[in-house]
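tool_log.txt
---
The assistant was asked to compare two proteins side by side. It first ran the structure predictor on the initial sequence, then on the second. Raw inputs and outputs are pasted verbatim so the downstream comparison step can read them without reformatting.
(1)
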Amino acid sequence: MEKKTLTKAVEKVRTAQMNRFPRVQRGVALITILLVVVIATVLATAMVSDQHMSIQRTRNFLTMNQARQYALGGEELSRQILWDDFEQGEGRDYLQEEWANPNLQFDFEEGEVQIQIEDLQGRLNVNSLGGQGAEYQLARVRFTNLFAGLGIDPAHIDRIADWIDEDTNARNLGAEDFEYLALKLPYRTSGQMIADVSELRLLLDLEQEDYEQLLPNLVALPSTSSPLNVNTASAQVLQSISDGLGFETAELLVSQREELQGFGTVLEFLQSPELAGTGISGNGLGVQSAFFEVRVKARFRERFAYLTSIVQRNPTDGSMRVIYRNSSKKIIPLVKDPDASSEKTTDA
């Protein structure tokens, strides 16, 4: 009897153990399934997030690319404006013409383009100091007058000429490779035409304050003989034509040309009462321009693109070509705001 009881007890224990193992196995399987679900969820979330970021990057790229295309379209619009100006056949360029309007703005689907066109021949060309003979002497006189009017050391005129010329012989107040190689951070002169006015920051001992005064009055054109347009030059630049022409007289000339809507010819300019007795020659002067700077600010949706181009227009047939492009200069053109008390152009 006791033996039967013991046997039943042993069988009961075995049965309990056998029933327990499947429950343990089921628990492990459930945990495994939960881990798989968690991992799958994390992976799916990561994939969705990566896909969303990829879509966003693609959208931003396409939007930015469209803004750049709008900027190029602004350049093309500027060329069309300059072509229309040439077709009018007046043979002169002045600041009351459509191309000189500081508020050129065009609206497109989901965007806009703002344009500024500036006549570069209304400034003194630094590369004219690399000319020869009478051409160089004329340029030197004008730069001397400009520097004197701005209170800048005229030694920099020789240094600009030395920077451009190919020889290593320093002029009286100039500087060549030897002086530049003696600097703490040595470098050589260019030995070729200046590509951009910002290159003047490399001139020996040119202070930032002097550079900022010169900047709005100078330009770097790929020609040593481009005439100065008296219809677009500022009073400061006009004053440089002759040492006998004061700044106040130059301002009177600017006011007179605004009333006339530009001088018709150089002779008309020279016959101005303000120039009587000054003995100014018409050499190196003109009323028509071939080089223009086009600055474009384009917007497509929430993206902006900027473009600065230099356009050369043939004065004979009006054909044009772009000789320079820079998409890094950010400008905000003048736009009329009826609620604003003033208008200004700033660099962004």
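(2)
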Amino acid sequence: MRKVYITGVGFITSIGNDAARVSESLREMRHGMVLYPPFQKADVPVKVAAPIRDFQTDTTEAEDWVFPARYSLRRELLRGMAPHGVYAYCAMQQAVEDAKLTDADCSNPDTGLYAASGGSPFLLGYYLEKMRRHGVMRCQPLGVVASISGTVNFNLVSHFKIKGASTGFSSACASSAHALGFACDEIMLGRQQRMFVVGAEDGNTESILPFAGMRALSVQTDPSIASRPFDLARDGFVGTGGATVLVLESEAEVERRGAKIYCEVAGWGQASDGHNVAISHPEGTGLRVAITNALKATDLPPEAVDYVNAHATSTPIGDLSEIRALKTIFGNSPTRPAVSSTKALTGHGLSLAGAMEAGFCALAMREGFMPGSAHITRLDPACTGLNIIRATLPHRPGIVLSNSSGFGGANVAVIFRNAL
């Protein structure tokens, strides 16, 4: 099996819109939560979100959107995009620049792109209502392309002239982790030499507030404690959006180009709970099997893992499920890996989460740190036996595990190896 490396990253997130700012936020445990103006209404119980700064995409007229001056998006591009399509386009530009890829590197049959997003409920709702009110022929010609699930891969494959494998993934909050795993397989099996992996979400009212009806969102009014994975008083997640793009390349391409390396994507595993459409198995069964499969795929024992970037979203049930899975895997390990959830800083990016947190792991491995788990005042007693770190550690992990879980009990575990 061929080796796979991450050679480029791009970020548009609540804690920074480039790798340098994101790294700084992770090290300093600086969160991106605010009292979100659209939520400050009497009939909205949720008050906190983690929005994207320096972009204005709150109108249905894409031509009125505002984004940083360093990015150039033509009018004809914007008409087929959702807000998170803009985020993904900008993160893609960063990743291409970071990996020092040429146009020829991006556009050839050996380079593909796998992406994940939930589509844009914001635009989809608007276009459907416009159709009902004004008739089918008044629909925006590119409204479907801009709003449905798949809009990210439609746009990026077109605009960056991708000619290799491309598709979108839909497994809720495990989606971009699935995209990463299958992209890794494409290179390991020799089908592709390079893959872009993209996760993106709008992170606005329409994509966040529907989770309030599930009682899944925090109702805290203090942004500094609204997202607190592993804390005994956690009461739900904080919604966010943005985009992350990863560049994966084969060892042969890395050597040919003399590319810098963040880390190796050593392997991955997946499994399903077979339990509930919306709630994780209470014992973390599927996640435990996914981690076991990832360890088998990489031929590593549990004690080899130095750091775990947990899926932990700050929900009472979900965090406990993962805690039990981790205790089963690492309970007999003579060395306990450091464990944290960076969602305490970013909020939960839904289908974006897996790719975003893989990007965080890549930064941590290249730059030599392990981000702490923020906002814990009373650690849940169920965590006894786990090494939940509450401050950033200035140590480079050798082996990192990143977990993602989604609706229907979809679970993905990805393992990264230090390549420096």
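---
observation on (2): The first strand starts at residue 4 and ends at 12. DSSP finds 15 helices and 13 strands in the chain.
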